[in-house]
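User: Can you model how S-adenosylmethionine sits in this protein?
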Amino acid sequence: MPLRLTLLEDLLLRLNLLPAPLLDTPLAPGIAKALITACEVGIFDALSTHPLPLNVLAGRVHCDPCGLQLLLHVLVETGYLRQKNGVYRNTHLSQRWLTSGSRFNIAPYVVHSPDIVTIWNHLPEIVRHNKPAMRMPYEDDASVPQTQAQLERHYAGLAALATVMGREPIARAHVPANATALLDVGGSHAAYSQLFCRKYPNLHATIVDIQPGIEAGLRTAKESNMEERMSFVCADIVRDDFVTAASMEGQFDVVLYFHIAHLLQPDVNEAVLAKVARALKPGGVLIYVDQVTDRGYYMRLAALMVQFMALTMKTVGGTCYPFATVKHWLENVGMGQVQQYRMLTPLATMITGVKQ
Ligand SMILES: C[S@@+](CC[C@H](N)C(=O)[O-])C[C@H]1O[C@@H](n2cnc3c(N)ncnc32)[C@H](O)[C@@H]1O
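Assistant: Here's the modeled complex, given as structure tokens:
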């Protein structure tokens, strides 16, 4: 963990002799900012192949050596870098999670995280009035450069997270062996579709999203040489009858509904799921992944993250739902055998149903 304590400090903390709130603020947001800056500047990538002395590193990342050194000190103390004889190297932590050559790279999500922090700026309004205080940028004008940049960060961050965290649902979901057609609802960056297509060589993925999301998905398709195996449909999943418009009725063996539910109100979710269910063949599988509020928490970290997600989504007009609510929606739209899967991945619960 970035906050590393000595045994003595840990003991003092447990005995309530250290002012713990000061670790949460300002220390934690300060560490977060140092980490984001390091990713934006490119420190971990610059050190990914060779350790470097300060002056060489400063030249590589185009920074002032004295200014950079202040940041490097923080990164050493938080366990992201090691320094010996004036030479800096990545630790295992940063090399695995924060370098673009690693298949576990989540640096794009770290760079996206200030957009999430902006949502939390509205926390006092939520607490006082319990009403949405802002909206997600999906409906904003994507031709405005600031919105465009925000959406690009968003999709890149989600794609990185999907690539790293998506392995578990893909490993556990039961996709029919003869499946050929997958529909990824709100699938934008197409990283989940890519993982499914890799695992099931006969699968073709159709991704439905708004135009900026599709642009992110097209990049994934190109970079992964999967252009032949992915199609994109631009539609508003809430307002459009995209299933009829794109002749999708009864065409799909598998439908993904990943991290969509938390954006929508209950009645809207049920209405979108009703369209989605129409797109499935009888016996087809709907796979739902999202934060589920009443999952049995055997990890404190997962519990904390789900509560944060519920708070965040409330701010932007959505929320997180319990399993019973999701099961009710799925059964109402004609799905049977609804079951949930406990996963190790924090934040994710998978629920599946089979079209009757
Ligand atoms: C939280 S992201 C989830 C993306 C992806 N399914 C995942 O799990 O990483 C929500 C996705 O829904 C898309 N979306 C939101 N509202 C939409 C709408 N009304 N019509 C189509 N797509 C929408 C967004 O563009 C985005 O790709």
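A couple of observations from the model: The mean pLDDT is 94. The chain has two domains: 7-105, 137-355.
User: Helpful, thanks.
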